[in-house]
Design a protein that fits this description.
By secondary structure, the protein is mainly α. The chain is built from 6 helices and 3 strands; from the N terminus they run ααβαβαβαα. Helix 2 packs parallel to helix 3 (41-48) and helix 4 (75-81) packs parallel to helix 6 (98-117). It is globular, with a radius of gyration of 15 Å. The termini are far apart.
Length: 118
C-alpha cells in the first residue's frame, strides 16, 4: 500500500512507519516472520533482528516489466536489504525463456550474497 491507500483506511502514518509499527508489535507477540516490501526490508531487519524471516514480493530484475506492482526491487537490492526469501512470479512465468530467466535471477542472488560476505 502507498500513503494514499493507507490514508483511505484511516492510517495517517507513512507506509514505512506503519510497517515498522506492525513489525515491532508482531515481534513482541512472538511472530518471527513477515512479508514486507523491499522498500522496508532493511528497516524491518534492523528492528526485528537477524533471525526474523523476511519474505519479499514484487521482485523485478532490471529491465523487466513492473506490471501492477507499485513497490518493487531487484533481487540484488532485496538481498542487500536483508531479505530471507524472494517472491518472483511473472518475470519468470512470462519470460520467453522461463528457465533462463530463473537462472539469471539465481545468478544475481548469488552475486548479491557473495558481495555481502566481503
Amino acid at each position: 500500500m502507498d500513503a494514499a491507500q493507507l490514508a483511505g483506511t484511516g492510517v495517517s502514518a507513512s507506509p514505512a512507519d506503519q510497517v515498522l509499527r506492525l513489525a515491532k508489535l508482531a515481534t513482541q507477540s512472538g511472530i518471527d516472520g513477515f512479508v514486507c516490501s523491499a522498500e522496508e526490508v532493511a528497516a524491518v531487519r534492523a528492528a526485528t533482528g537477524p533471525d526474523t524471516l523476511l519474505v519479499i514480493p514484487g521482485i523485478r530484475p532490471a529491465g523487466t516489466a513492473i506490471g501492477d506492482q507499485k513497490r518493487i526491487a531487484t533481487p540484488a537490492q532485496a538481498i542487500a536489504g536483508g531479505a530471507s526469501m524472494l517472491v518472483v512470479g511473472r518475470p519468470i512465468t512470462q519470460a520467453p525463456d522461463p528457465a533462463g530467466a530463473a537462472q539469471d535471477i539465481l545468478d544475481e542472488i548469488a552475486r548479491a550474497e557473495a558481495s555481502q560476505k566481503k
